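Two proteins, back to back. First:
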Amino acid sequence: MGTTPSKSVQARHFKLRKISALARELEDCRSDNEIRMAKMQGAGVFDFVMGLRLAARLTYILKEKLSQYHLDANWGQILDDEGFYLSPECDIIVHKEGYIDRWNGAGGEINNVMDFRFIELKKVVAVISCKSYLTSISKKYTNYCQRLKPYLKGRDFWLFAECIQNGKEETLNKKARNIGHNGFWYLYTWDKKSSEHGENRPLWEKFVDEIDKLGRTESVKTNLKIEMSNFMSGPK
């Protein structure tokens, strides 16, 4: 009879199943020789489409994970407290349930060509920026972070990459934090010339843990507000 797997091993499998599948899917696409050759000849998939695919797939994972905490995740913009100014576009906004408006999301849960939400600032919990292949932090992206800063006070701001250049983990993490990110994540490292890559499963697990922590923290805040409101209203 074989050895019975420990509960912790099985729990980790379920915990990382979706993020692991995402990593494998994107990694297989990037390492495919024919796809790589087409890209080298200027006839490959556009970089921004690769980034869009990452953001969309990650959004689906977050939606499922955060639903137990009555939180949602969407592509969109943030509307300020006065209802006048809008933030720059956000790849993923983690927010309390509800939104001001939804553009081109009328096709139901399956047939949407585009699903863009406008979220009130008071509902925003975190913002996640997504990158396909990250080798450096550009001046353009630094300026984007500065423009987004007024909408991030007291909120998490994470950078999530499909892959990063081999050997640049510490440098990119430091630069990301210098421009305002308090979380830096990636699925695997990648060497463009050799196609060598390396998964970072401990980082995946930490990311999933942080998502759970985010949800639990918001649940505690919501419960405290309800208790305080009931206390202030007094006995009926």
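And the second protein:
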Amino acid sequence: MQNYILRIVKDDWEKQVFALKAYYAGVRRGWEKGSTIFLIKKTESGDAFIGYGIIKDIASLDEMDDKEKEMCINNNWNRKLSFGKLVRFEPPVPVKDTVVGKWGQKGALLHGTPISQSDIESITKIAKTKIML
């Protein structure tokens, strides 16, 4: 099973992810139930991990209602990744302070990048507070 990093660009989308426990993805990957998705967002101190979710369900456009489908089409999204477990980091963990900060990819290039289980564990250990949603 592959785990990934996904980037949240807008504040509204961050609120949406944590309110709905779902991420609408435009990047095409081999999404699987049980995969861990690490979420990053630009903060005042640079890119930071704001939390992670474990995929519970994956919905394609054909499985969405008309309103949700229209929103996805307007934003070039093709999948809804619903999370069974969603965790927020407070404060966010700066990417530069993690093993990912040593990778060649930075910023937007991290979007859709696979991440190993050992890297996931090292990041979660750094997080000071984990809020389960």
